[in-house]
Amino acid sequence: MQKISSKKSTQNMTANKSSYHHGDLRSSLLEAAKAMLSESGIEGLSLRKLADRVGVSRTAPYHHFKDKNELLCAIAEEGFEHWHNNAEQIFSQNGLTTKQKYHQFFQGYIGYAAENPEMYDLMFGRTIWKQNSATNDLRDIAYPSFQRQVEMTKKWQEQGLMPVEEDTLRLAQVTWGTMHGIARLLIDGIYADRSHIDEMCTCAVNLFTRE
Predict the structure, then answer these.
(1) pLDDT number for residue 138
(2) Taking the chain (211 residues) in consecutive chunks of 10 residues, what is each chunk's mean pLDDT?
(3) What was the pLDDT predicted at 1?
(4) Where is the HTH tetR-type domain positioned along the sequence (predicted)?
(5) Could you tell me if residue 3 is inside a domain?
(6) Residues 41 and 127 in one domain
(7) Nearest one of 49, 3, 1, 51 to 25, comparing CA atoms
(8) Residue 143: its pLDDT value, please?
(9) Residues 141, 196 within the same domain
(10) For the domain that residue 57 is a member of, what is the CATH number?
């Protein structure tokens, strides 16, 4: 009976591993990797641990990510995708003033960083960018993020929300730099905590806008 049970167990494991379709396994690996990143940080994530977490062979992740860096870049891509989608939802709302939408955008950026500090560090930190190890796919979604900010800043200037006499590029750099700075203060937990988010965002938006 014990031999039969062991055989069935092995068959079940094989069935589970083979039940993943190509796209399904990659998605499952990314979801598990994001959870591990949140739990243990970048240092606690490896392809070997990821395989164990998902329940596949330790060679399976290498069919989708050639190394840890490529996995980290893929996770960061999903972070940028989430951020872009959230921004689109905010700015497509009806019944809100431009300033109210901008306030939601500003607060959404800070809130996401506070709730997902490991992901935020991966998206904007030195692990990928300082080492110049970003994949082309990550660059293709990350670099346009700031260009989008410049375009929106120009639009806000034209609508009278932001000062038109300021250089658009510099204004975009300063507003995003402010968001990033507040996010870092919250993540580091030295001079600010989550109870300050609403008031800090309101203060910043009031300083940058004219409505």
Answers:
(1) 96
(2) 42 45 81 95 94 94 94 96 92 94 95 93 92 94 92 95 97 96 90 88 95 70
(3) 41
(4) 23-83
(5) no
(6) no
(7) 51
(8) 92
(9) yes
(10) 1.10.10.60
Same domain as 128, residue 181:
yes
Whether the pTM exceeds 0.70: the reply is yes
| Beta carbons within 10 angstroms of residue 206's beta carbon | 12
Sole residue written with tokens 């607060």: 107
d(Cα 73, Cα 140) in Å, to the nearest integer?
Answer: 11
116 & 60 share domain: no
Residues with Cβ within 8 Å of residue 116, at least 6 apart in sequence: 38, 79
Q: For the chain, what is the domain count? A: 2
- 3-state helix, strand, coil split of the chain in percent (to 5) is 80, 0, 20
d(CA 36, CA 21): 22
Question: Which amino acid does the sequence have at 50?
Answer: L
Are residues 101 and 33 part of one domain?
A: no
Three-state DSSP state, 51: helix
Question: Domain range holding 31?
Answer: 24-65
Name the token pair of 130. 């300082």
Beta-carbon neighbour count of residue 145 at 10 Å?
A: 15
Query: What is the pLDDT at residue 140?
Result: 95
